[in-house]
Amino acid sequence: MGQTILELHDIVKTFPGVLALNGINFNLLSGEIHAICGENGAGKSTLMKVVCGVHEADSGTMIVNGKQENFSNPMEAYEKGVSIIFQETSLFEEMTVLDNMFLGHEMTKKAGPLQIIDYGAMRREAEKIFQRLNTKIHMDAQIKTLGMAQKQMVEIAKALTFDANIIIFDEPTASLTQREVTALFQIINDLKASGLGIVYISHRMEEIFELCDRVTVIRDGQYISTKNIAETSKDDLVADMVGRKMGSYYPKSETKIGEEIFHVEGYYDEGFLEDISFYVRRGEILGFAGLAGAGRTELMESICGFTGRAAGTMWLEGKPLEIKNYKQAMENGIVYVSEDRGKYGLIVDMTIQQNISLPQLERFKKGPGFLDEKKESEKGREYIEEVGIKAPSPDFLVANLSGGNQQKVSVSKALALDPKLLILDEPTRGVDVNAKAEIHKIISELTQKGLTIIMISSELPELIGMCDRIYVMKDGYIAGCFDREDVTQEKILTVALESKKERQEG
Amino acid sequence: MNEKKKKASFLTTEFYLALFLILVLAFLGVAARDFYSINNIMSLLNTFSYILISAIGMNMIIITSNIDVSTGALISVVCLFTAAIGKTGVPFAGLLPAAMLMGAVLSTMNGLFITKMKIPAIVATLATTQIFQGVLPLLVEGSIYDLPASFTWLAFDAKVFGIIPASVLICLIVTVIALIFMKYSKFSKKIYAIGNNAKGARLAGVNVNKTIVITYAIAGALFGISAVIIATAGQRVTNTMGTGLEMTFIAAVVLGGTSTAGGSGKIIGTVIGAFILAMIAPAINYLGISPNWSDAVKGAIIIISVVVSGAKYLKKKRVIHKGSTVEAGGGAS
């Protein structure tokens, strides 16, 4: 292992209203693989985007190959030897592999008075890089014809066209199969052996222990620790990642839990979900925990009929249930509140009352298809009071409400459908602390009225504080289930991070 | 796998289009022999030339995932501008660069509205269409007429080998330059990249706004060339010379296989697309069908070609999906 090639000191980055990074320190040696790990939203990706110039840091210094740098776009970073392989690929689908590798820094030659692209030289260079990566990809193939693993290979090849000595991988295995992961690790190890420094961002424990030399943990945007992999254990890392104390108060009230109301057995959707079975009882709050991409949202959307019918059986109140589309789900009393309010939940350019009446205009009909605005307005007023939306009147534009109040409108819209089972996907994402507490209170009150709730959340304290039972999902299957009495953050994280292999053995 | 790839690279949109074109030409040879009269062919080539020159510009704009519906009105303005200069006896060698410059200036305006003021391309160019059309009656009442022989030189006197209209030569030069430019210039890669993934292009250090404005400027210069060909065809230039042409250009581009979503499209496709569109009106005429049908036929051909290429795309996607999993697995082992 060689000298330090990348150093970060006290990096601070704020987004409007959020302190995303608060004094991060990090250093990378040549010939090492250094993992950065942390929970969802800990700031891993943000940190790397600062390094390669996608975001600019508010303060702090960065030293690359001995020189202080401050990149304003990734191209600058590339030219100074820092390459990043983004989580979502930044390739151009309709263009060829060769064009993608050299985009923005094409090799040229002189042709008379003109500088024209030198395809021959680019081909030879690409050939060399592919040999180094020990891979074969058709250079003239369009990116859209490639599989995920090949796309990633093109990204790596692109990084090497710049002669980078620092390569950052941002969750590279998220969409790869096990075999592809093995091949990728081989390449990363080869790159390391040739003296490059690798930053490896991941929250998959098994990968970090298999591949990396050192690991830096960040939590809530703060630097926590840097350890040698050989001298640490999974439990240590999990403890560092969780760290915080359960400080907040959750208004979970004791409810009478009734009979089983909804039951799913052997739910299966090729490539996303495998063999999922769970049940929920009347008046219960059932939590779904898991890391980003574990398949929680996909499961709920599938159950509600958004993505077409998957294999498996469902019972509602003891009767077999068939859901082909979301309309059927609503008619049967299953209502879903999306995690993405802006995109799927609300029409922000419409008023509160219009949003509430939208899924069931039939009920607000007057005469031969006119809208009974008085009735609509009454309904809106009813929910403003019941749910506590802070708005002067029901004909107030949703766009002018705060995030928390918009979320309350989302919930009102769902409640107006008289659901039996309410599915809330990240109900408190992006809302402030007060609104969060209010939403928790609303959820709690609803269950006392006999409503059954399934709640997906990435905030473990919230799940632990609110739920009667918690299922933990990983890679599209249910990896564990905990009762309210004996759940802890550490237990959930251990299950959520556990590898498939361990699960089969244990 | 390799065999499949060879087959796929051969059966492109351009190939099907060319096949269609040959079939129609053969049919016309049987059903309407007069279609092949020298006069008709030369007039058709002239129309083809100005459609293709503008369609190349439109193709570049559409590749960046933008659009220009003001082209027709813009050409009307440039036609009048050219006539006004031509009236004073300026020769063709002066008219061409002046028209190109005027076209570029007007089109740059579109580009600036779209990038600097962030107006969606269709809205911005709809607005400029109105502005251009609104300005025309203010400039000239009805038309500029009694233009001198120096003005109509291109249409009446400049013939290659004494018979082929010189506009064909201009078109040939433009097309060759465009072919080289779209393959060998760094700028063309930026155009494609923006159309594919504007955010990704930005991350790769491409100045997206600047590139779009320059693209509009280049396209504008090409529209200017078309305007000169159209204007100098007679001794009288009216203020509706270009009306409706934008649809023909867009149609030629779409017919040629360029996706309106941006990011893909080849010049060769546009060449064939432009030829088919230039051919429809005379073909209908010589087949003895009422000329009122020609717009409807244009529309039908566009719909059919888009549906066919869409269906082909879906099929291709399915096949590739299967193929790539196999290949990816094989690569990893």
Structure description:
Chain B: It is found in: Cell membrane. The complex is a heterodimer of chains A (506) and B (333). Chain A is an alpha/beta fold and 506 residues long. Chain A has 18 helices and 24 strands. Chain A folds into two domains: 4-242, Rossmann fold (3-Layer(aba) Sandwich); 260-346 and 419-505, P-loop containing nucleotide triphosphate hydrolases (Rossmann fold, 3-Layer(aba) Sandwich). The longest helix of chain A has 16 residues, at 178-193. With 333 residues, chain B is mostly helical. Chain B has a single domain (37-293), classed as ABC transporter involved in vitamin B12 uptake, BtuC (Orthogonal Bundle), CATH 1.10.3470. Chain B is built from 14 helices and four strands. In chain B, a hairpin with a 3-residue loop joins strand 2 (159-160) and strand 3. In chain B, helix 3 runs antiparallel to helix 13. The chains are: A alpha/beta (506), B mainly alpha (333). Chains A and B meet through helix 2, strand 8, helix 5 and helix 6 of A and helix 8, helix 9, helix 10 and helix 14 of B.
